[in-house]
Amino acid sequence: MLGLKPVDSDVSKRQDRGVLQARGLSHQWGRRTLIMGIVNVTPDSFSGDGVLSCADAVDRAVLQVDAGADILDIGGESTRPGHQPITAEEELGRVGPVLSAIRERMPNALISLDTTKSAVLSASTEVDMLNSIWGISDELLALAVERSLPVVIMHNKERAEYDTSVVDEVLRYLDEQSRKAVRAGLKHENVILDPGIGFGKTAEHNLQVLNQLHRLVALGFPTLLGASRKSFIGKLIGKTVDERLWGSLAAVALAVAAGIDVVRVHDVAQTKDVLVVSDAIVRQTRPAGWVS
After folding, report:
1. Among candidates 50, 55, 104, 100, which has minimal Cα distance to 76?
2. Catalytic annotation, pick one of 14, 117, 230, 286
3. Domain that holds residue 251
4. Positive or negative, the Cα torsion across 249, 250, 251, 257?
5. Which pTM does this prediction carry?
6. pLDDT digits (tens, 9 = 90+) for 248-284
7. Catalytic site residue 230?
């Protein structure tokens, strides 16, 4: 990890959203952009990087942290279009051993669990954060409040059909969900909003949402973007899923410019370089020991 620091105390206009306190991380929202590294414990991940072996998943997690990931996002069920749903028991059978092994090997790692099932979250006591891709159900919310877990709340939809502007609908939904979470007892700084790029949206919808990220930021909550290797990038550049790194990094840089707080990515090392430069320009951070 590079020791990044702000040049002065006025580095961000968005530092009034509190501090993320989780495991060993104490992070003032807006100081720099965090990296959430993806670890798919699945045989059918859209990105082709899913693994079922516990040892392989842990090795991938270690590589992500060594490359600069601030958060590890562990998921046991594919969310690709046309994926085969699995039971809570099967999902827990996949992620449970991985979570325990990661915690044993990296006691201070900040672990997020990507699940929509309250039974899986309830049994996963090693995790520090919830990543919920279908808004936030009452059951998941109750567990998050009970355990004071930060929660990523994502917009999703069964069909990519919108009566009005896709951006307006996404923002309205996330505003309602964030208010619900705060009313239930989650701290404002623990409610992280994700517009759900690639979920219930066409390629054109995705581009419209990305063009208006500043409006998501204006809702006043911490924000997350997951555009890594998504199909709209492939459509734009004509590349297969394993050739979308540069397109993904372009989305990362533009997300920082819009004020996004966390980027969820497959390629941590390359993203880290992009963030060091982007944050230096946008958030006025500098590496430790910087001499101009």
Report:
1. 50
2. 230
3. 110-287
4. positive
5. 0.93
6. 999 999 999 999 999 999 999 999 999 999 999 999 9
7. yes
